[in-house]
Amino acid sequence: MFIADFHTHHACPDHPAVLPHNATGVLAARWADTARRVADLDDLLAESGRYGVDLRVLSAPPAMVTPHGERTRPGDQRRLNDHLATVVAGDPARLAGLATIDAFGGEAAAGEVVRAVRDLGLPGVVVDCAAADGRLLGDPAARPTLVAAAELGVPVFAHPISRSTLTAEFAGLGRLGTSLARGTITAAALLSLLTGGVLATLPGLHVVFPMLGVAGLALAAATDEGALLSAPDRSAHVYADTMGFAPSAIRFATDLLGADHVVVGGDWPIAERSTTRDRVEAALRDAGLGPDDSALVAGANTLRLLGRG
């Protein structure tokens, strides 16, 4: 199977990855090495070769490269995207890139979406699923970005953030608390697109959420609005990345969204378990997927989202 990892991080050395707000001790202790790896393309490509990963989709979500409480400046977004386009052009067979966009930047953000796609050739965008001030992706401020992506036919990767209130409330759970906080805000962002009518009014929008926010899928599935997610005509194009390799979670997502709306995502280099060919094949097999559905999740869906298949 062709293996494509949709959830891989890379940022240019001039914009190093910043420690997530209220990060737990374990993550904080290894963050210096993590930030180094985010900027180390040679490390990434070497690992991809060792582990049999055919394609990496690179992204630097705004919250990863912007200090907490600050907005990602337009000039920084342009520089990040210019760098990414150069990196991808150097190895287009093994790399693709998602432009860094501050989704809550209104028309200016939409303009950068157009520039990144049309001028730089980047086949998608990555955004924060929510703003630090509490606004979710369904907020009107994010609509120009989503409209631009829908009109251009490129995917939007909605990446988790660490909201101060949730992270503090769940701090007693350690690293699981951090994951729960990030998963909760991701789930809320998905539900905001659903309840706000964004998914219904933008049928050309393709949005990818990490499996971390799977609770949003579960809640949506229990509502009348959630029928959009599994409608035969796929009137709402919501995708889940595996963000890990739990067979039961993969099975749930493929049952709800369809095997054609799930992609492999490893969260490199944040996650402790790397994406490997063996791990992907085992997870898809244990999820009970047949050869055709496994091929879709493993890489074909990502290729289609990027306009390569």
Characterization of this structure:
- It is a single chain.
- With 309 residues, this protein is α/β, with parallel strands linked by helices.
- It has one domain: TIM Barrel (Alpha-Beta Barrel), CATH 3.20.20.140.
- It contains 14 helices and 8 strands.
- The protein has helices spanning 25-29, 31-38, 41-51, 62-65, 74-90, 106-119, 143-152, 164-169, 175-195, 198-201, 214-221, 247-257, 277-286, 291-305; strands at residues 4-9, 55-59, 95-100, 125-128, 156-159, 206-210, 237-241, 262-263.
- An 8-stranded parallel β-sheet has the order 1-2-3-4-5-6-7-8, with helices on both faces.
- Helix 6 (106-119) links the parallel strand 3 (95-100) and strand 4.
- Helix 6 (106-119) packs parallel to helix 7, helix 9 (175-195) packs across helix 11 (214-221) and helix 12 (247-257) packs across helix 13 (277-286).
